[in-house]
Amino acid sequence: MRAILGWFLVLAGILVALFGAAGIGGSYLPDAVDPGGTRVVGAIIIAVGLLLVAGGIRLIRSRPRVGRPERPPPKPARGLTRFHLVGSVAAGLLIAAAGVGAILYSNSFDGEVHSFRSARQCATITNADCYQLRTVTITGVDISHGRSGETDTVHFMDSDAPHEVAIHPGGLDASVLRTGSEGVATLWHGKYMYLDISGVRFATTANPIDQQRELRLVGYIVLGFVVFDAAALAGVYVYVRTRGRSRVKGLLPPSGVEITGYPILPLVLHPKAPGGRLLVWLVAVPLGLAFEFLYFAQYGQLVQWTIGVGTGLLVIAGAVWLLFLMPRSAIYVDEMTFGTVGVLGKRRAWARSEAARVVLKALARSRRTPPLPLAIVVGPDGRARMKFSAAAYDSGPMIQFAAALRVPIDEDSLEVPISPAQLEREIPGSVAWSIRYGQVLGAGIAVVLIAAILLVMALSSGPSHR
After folding, report:
1. What's the number of CA atoms in the CB half-sphere (13 Å) around residue 410?
2. Does residue 173 form part of some domain?
């Protein structure tokens, strides 16, 4: 896995560096806009690409060079590894580079913004450094929705000549933009900058002030999320290190660390650290939530806040589950019983005489989804007594668990995935109904969500005429 991520970072870094070099080369063209700012942004992008390449090479060189034994000795979870740290830093650098690039690119509008703000109203038509206030009459408005939100294309007559401008009304009252309304348009250097209708001023998409403001807003939002993710990752790093050094205090006493022969009872095994899933919940998901929140702004505040709050609560629930609730769960073996401890401390126990063997199975789910490792404690009658996901545990804890039960462990079945129906026939009671009908449930939920999204988009989007 390290080698794959390393080569991915190397290739991504090369592509990013080439993109920066292309931008610098393009700045030397005769029609280039703000060549100095473009070269600065290109140099930053090249630096980010080189950092990605360096991180990828370090990961490639740090991969193990000897084969792992079939059953490695158990060792404590290392928490956040170099794989997680390098991946988090690389993702943060890419996102930060995008934010810095947006802010630096917005500086290319400084000259045009300063010239427009210092312009005065024209005293004569021949003066090219001034702006004109033109009386216009709206002849129609076309409304459409896209990635940048609602866009209104306003058609109007200026001195009996037809013209049109595009505006993003945002939170302004766009109901004043209707056929027959009269207003004043600000004309500067042959472009319409503002449209004043019924006391409401709309900036057009040709307005350099509005363009610069939007670019800087995007850059500041991206940098804000980078700072938030960096702080969250630092907090998780400190938490994992502190939790790894401290003794686990729970409902069950901890087991001995030094194991000779059979494990010391009672044996308590907690799931391993979330690892790479932290990158998803702390980096990718918050950024996706931010872009989703901005995207759904075009459909109104009700849709925006409903979807934003719903997905935000889902993200928070997933982070709480991974960081705080899941580490509280455990599997255990004591002198009389064995069983599980839930995330809220609820115990489910069986008598040790009900355990005959421990079987590890690779449960096939779909073609594009990797098999789910499943651990099953089988009773003397061949039926499943206890089952849990083995993905949260390494092979070492599984061996300890079977040794504490004084029963054999079957790991050979992991090599060949088995369907839920076949596993249920082989070991009755080993597959829950949610797994057996998981594809049907997933398809039903997906159909309902897609239908709801399409319904909202059909009601809120699409071109209309005002």
Report:
1. 13
2. yes
d(CA 161, CA 152): 20
Query: 296 versus 380: which is more confidently predicted?
Result: 380
The letter for the amino acid at 132 is Q
Q: What is the percent of the chain where pLDDT is above 90?
A: 9
Boundary-marking domain end, from 161, 180, 207: 207
Q: How many whole angstroms separate alpha carbon 310 and alpha carbon 456?
A: 16
Give the H or E element holding residue 134: strand 131-146
Supply the pTM of this predicted model: 0.44
Q: Tell me which of 27 and 207 has the higher pLDDT.
A: 207
Burial category of 210 from C-beta neighbours within 10 Å (exposed 0-12, middle 13-18, buried 19 and up): buried
Residue the block writes with tokens 């999204």: 453
Distance between CA atoms of residues 218 and 287, nearest Å: 12
**What is the count of structural domains for the chain?**
2
Q: Which two tokens stand for residue 431?
A: 């597959």
Strand ranges across the sheet with 409-410: 384-389, 372-378, 357-363, 409-410
Question: Which residue from 11, 4, 162, 33 is spatially nearest to 107, judged by alpha carbons?
Answer: 33
List Cα–Cα distances, 117 to 95, 128, 131, 214, 315, in angstroms.
33, 14, 10, 17, 44
Q: What pLDDT sits at residue 101?
A: 83
Res. 265: pLDDT tops 70: yes
Domain assignment of residue 269, yes or no: no
Residue type for position 360: L
Name which of 421, 420, 395 is nearest 409 in CA terms. Answer: 395
* Bridge partner residues of 418 (DSSP): 363
Q: Answer whether residue 463 shows pLDDT above 70.
A: no
Last residue of a domain, one of 187, 207, 227: 207
If one compares 351 and 285, the residue with the highest pLDDT of the two is: 351
Per-residue pLDDT of 175-202, as tens digits, reads 888 888 899 999 888 889 999 998 889 9
Residue 102 within a domain: no
Residue with tokens 């991946």: 87
Range of the domain at 359: 334-431
CATH number at residue 137: 2.40.50
Instruction: Mention every residue, 6+ apart, whose C-beta is less than 8 A from residue 317.
Output: none
CA distances 401 to 224, 321, 341, 365, 396, Å, are 45, 24, 14, 26, 9
